[in-house]
Design brief:
It is built from ten helices and 14 strands. The strands form three sheets. Strands 6-7-8-3-9-10 form a six-stranded mixed sheet, with helices on both faces. A four-stranded antiparallel sheet has the order 2-1-4-5, with helices on one face. A four-stranded antiparallel sheet has the order 12-13-11-14. Bound molecules: adenosine-5'-triphosphate. Keywords: ATP-binding, Nucleotide-binding, Transport.
Length: 305
């Protein structure tokens, strides 16, 4: 499958603060990619760089094989985006906003479709100054989608939406993706991304710490093993030295908590311990949800630094 967006070895610093470190990933045509990370991880910075809004220090960005930078915008004609807050003019109606953003052929039909898909009919002809937070958010998303772009970038799109609106948006994004639109979406609502995204990029302090399909994450990433041995301190240091994802429990620093990062992780760990003649006393399998596995991953990353 062809890549619509390609980000290669992106470095960005604001002054002396290095915000992104060698960030590389691709978004295939028709794929929904989730960008997940704690506050300040660099999610919005990546999105702004893809939109040519900030300068990059090193790296390469292409959309549909065309380079993007602050001085090279041609490829952005194929991109719709909502970053941070929607740009709303209080004295225009919602429909007038969409008319400003709809450029292509089938303009009227595209406007009607997005209004219907996001259930905005009741208020789309009211002035935007009368809109609630959620209505403004939906209008911002509608602006990003109305021109049927090939790539859509949405920063925290579920902000301010009620559960019904979240479901409507999810259904529409899925429909557009099945028709070939690609999405890069950041969100803190991991349970929502679980239902939406095909692939997940975990970002922490400007580094991509894991890149996986959602299917793999749900089946394998949510599992860890608590291993007890005859010499936990020695066992733990050997596993860490091998680069295996071992977490620390502050209340019991020697306890071995092994994240199942790949299906081979447990086998690698057991092989290492047995080769070192360390007796394995007990193994307990623990299943996490997406939220917990994300927190585990970030905590692990902070430990190995
Ligand atoms: N214009 C700027 N000048 C200086 N520092 C900036 C600027 N924009 C962002 N930063 C810094 O870059 C880092 C990454 O910020 P960014 O907004 O990309 O994070 P984020 O992952 O989107 O966070 P959040 O989830 O809170 O939106 C932060 O430390 C932030 O303070």
């Amino acid at each position: 499958m062809s890549n619509l967006l390609s980000v290669q070895q992106l470095d960005i610093a604001f002054g002396k603060h290095q915000v992104l470190h060698q960030v590389s990933f691709d978004v295939a045509a028709g794929h929904i990619v989730a960008l997940v990370g704690p506050n300040g991880a660099g999610k919005s910075t990546i999105m702004k760089a893809v939109l040519g809004l900030i300068s990059i220090d090193h790296g390469h960005l292409t959309i549909d094989s065309h380079p993007v930078s602050m001085t090279s915008h041609e490829a952005l004609k194929q991109v719709g985006a909502l970053i941070e807050y929607p740009g709303i003019y209080p004295f225009l109606t919602g429909r007038q906003h969409l008319e400003l953003f709809a450029d292509k052929e089938n303009r009227e039909a595209n406007i009607e479709q997005v209004i219907k898909a996001l259930h905005m009919t009741d208020y789309i002809d009211h002035k935007a100054k009368l809109y609630s937070l959620g209505m403004k958010q939906k209008l911002g998303i509608a602006q990003a989608l109305v021109d049927r772009p090939k790539l859509v970038i949405l920063d925290e799109p579920m902000n301010g939406l009620d559960p019904e609106a979240v479901k409507q948006l999810r259904d529409y994004i899925r429909q557009l993706a099945s028709e070939g639109t690609s999405f890069l979406i950041s969100s803190h609502i991991l349970s929502e991304l679980e239902k939406l995204a095909d692939d997940v990029l975990f970002l922490d302090q400007g580094h991509i710490i894991r890149q996986t399909s959602m299917a793999e994450l749900v089946t394998s990433g949510g599992t860890s093993y608590h291993i007890t041995t005859a010499d936990d301190a020695d066992a733990k240091s050997r596993l860490i030295a091998l680069g295996l994802p071992v977490l620390t429990d502050d209340t019991d620093p020697e306890k071995i908590i092994l994240l199942q990062k790949t299906p081979q992780t447990l086998n690698q760990a057991l092989h290492t311990l047995l080769t070192a003649n360390i007796e394995i006393v007990d193994i307990v399998k623990v299943q996490h949800d997406l939220e917990e596995s994300f927190l585990d991953m970030v905590n692990h990353q902070q430990e190995v630094k």
